[in-house]
Amino acid sequence: MKISSMLRKTRKKVTGEETGFTLVELLTVMILSLIMMAGMVGLLTMTFDSFSNGKSIQSISDAARRALPVMDRQMKMLLRINDTECLPYQDDTVAGEWHGISFYADVDNTAVNADVDNPTNADKVKFYLDGTNLKQETTTPGANPTVTTATLCSYVDEVDFYYFTAGVAPGNDTPPSNPYPGTALNSTAGSIQVVIKLSKGKFTRTYSQNTFLRILSRG
Questions:
Q1: Residue 185 lies in a domain
Q2: Alpha helix (H) residue ranges in 77-179
């Protein structure tokens, strides 16, 4: 039945010229109404899903943008990599892959007499994964050290550290195939690549950053 015909019948019904609708007409109106409602619900669902997906991707991207520059700035200033404290973070299944780092660095430029020969005069910094949170633990120097812990970012599935000898650039593959495979990190590392894998909802993104160490000759 055409819509125009149904509208005429409706007008006649209102003006008293039509006694009623047939069952077929009522069913047709109900079916058309259901189709229109389904289309509207589908459109609203797509709109909300698109908004939610955009928020998830934005949250992941913002988390990486906050964490990586902080790590880069502090690792550039390291005076010593604590090989023994890094050992618990070593991945025995993937050569050259570590899941945390411990080092000394004058992160706020306030340490007195801190250098490669006296690294403990600077702050001791650890980056590690705690559940889905990337953490930074900072221990101040001195006889009465203060330990503070901060969350750099959330939504983290995995954080990996790869060490490269001086003059060796990280490979383009992920993970890189050419990191330093040993455990003498302090005396060997010239650069560090950090790879963070983040997930929220159905979205997963991987971000990486290369940090070239300013001090290559470390005691």
A1: yes
A2: 83-86
